[in-house]
Amino acid sequence: MAKEKFNYTFGNEAVSTSVTAFYDAVLLYGLALNQTLATGGNQTDGAAIVKAMWNRTFTGITGDVNIDSNGDRIADYSLLDMDPKTNEFKVVANYIGVKQSLEYVPGMSIHWAGGRTTPPPDTPTCGFDNSKCQTIPGYAVLSIVLSLIVVILFIASLFIYRHFKLEAEIASMTWKINYKDIIRIPSEGFKTSMMSLIQRRNSQRPSVISDDIGSMISQCEYGRQMFSQTAFYKGNKVALKTLKRSRLELKRPLLLEFKRLKDLHHDHLVRFYGACVEANYCCLLTEYCPKGSLQDILENDQIKLDWMFRYSLMHDIIKGMIYLHSSDIRSHGGLKSSNCVVDSRFVLKIADFGIRSLRGNPEESNSDSDSHAYWKAFNTQLDPPNKAKLMKFHLDTCIAFSSRMCLFSLLTYDHCPPPFLFAILSL
């Protein structure tokens, strides 16, 4: 048509889509107008002309033009793909609007971005607006990381501070005692028993211990008693135990044991004042309990204990052992009646605990002769196979046995156990 009317031939240059659409629109209007006039209509009847455009198919400059019942053009589309080798767009598929189908061009394939061989999903994984992915903003991540670093540094600093504080306390050796500050009491003339109560040769009014403790004490047989050496330290009368060693090697485990003993305070545990570690003067200083030990009370036939006093002593043993097991000492290791002493207020306190590195030496351990060492007696009465089985028990089990035997000795003191004895021992 361009050649015939205007003597112009289109080459390979692209024609504007606006021009082709305008041409097809004018052609559609002409076809609808001719149909309206052919049916007796008027060129001024716009409604009739528009109605004639609907449901029409004709060939335009861009190919087949299809108009649906709403007056909309059913468009066809071509899918162009750039060949990465030639950098040219090529038609690889056509969408036919009338058929509503996509037809691929034979021998052509789509080059997907990123080396993919399959088309990407219709909807991105996180959605088009990233609403399906709960991402944390960068500043929030930075804040969390910095907070964690601060917390870790704080915890590490706390542990380091506690470590150096402990080491400083161990190095300070607050338990260390100068031998010049100890005033020894000569053994002769001041024979002091850790296991006897106040002695009176002439008992004026014998009665039970709850009425008058002084009236119960009779003449003691010193051959059956264990005496503790005493001394004065800074105005306080203390029990002094001389170690059969010329000197002590102060390593960290021993220093830590001394520190733990120094920090241990309880109403039913003997207080540890400190230790002297000077050469040839190695000794331990603990609280002095003038009323003697539980062994004294048990072996003295002149003493008659009422049940209220027995209950008080048993309560003191239990409270002391509970606190000892919950402390850093963890366990006693050799509980017996001679280790249970009574102070001036008739409060029972547990002694001879801790410092296992010193007490583990046979020369430093107290003799168990004439003492109620139930834990040792129970062990020595077993044959070797049973001893091997006993060693498998936890240490707390052995200490519980010793505690129960101390309670048993109190309950059966007058050879008349109460009816609820076995119920108590089974706890």
Question: How would you characterize this protein structure?
Answer:
The protein has twelve helices and 13 strands. It has two domains: 2-115, no CATH class; 173-425, Transferase(Phosphotransferase), domain 1, CATH 1.10.510. The chain is of the alpha+beta class and 427 residues long. It has helices spanning 2-6, 17-38, 46-53, 138-172, 252-263, 294-299, 307-326, 356-359, 374-380, 384-390, 395-411, 421-425; strands spanning 56-60, 63-67, 73-74, 77-82, 89-96, 101-104, 182-184, 229-233, 236-242, 272-276, 283-287, 340-342, 348-350. The chain is rod-shaped, with a radius of gyration of 53 Å. Strands 7-8-9-11-10 form a five-stranded antiparallel β-sheet. A three-stranded antiparallel β-sheet has the order 1-2-3, with helices on one face. Strands 4-5-6 form a three-stranded antiparallel β-sheet, with no helix packed on it. Helix 7 (307-326) packs antiparallel against helix 11. Helices cover 35% and strands 14% of the residues. Residues 188-226, 360-384, 387-395 and 419-427 have low confidence and may be disordered. InterPro entries: ANF_lig-bd_rcpt, ANPR/GUC, Cyclic_nucleotide_synthase, Kinase-like_dom_sf, Peripla_BP_I, Prot_kinase_dom, Ser-Thr/Tyr_kinase_cat_dom. Pfam families: ANF_receptor (PF01094), PK_Tyr_Ser-Thr (PF07714). It is an enzyme of class 4 (lyase).
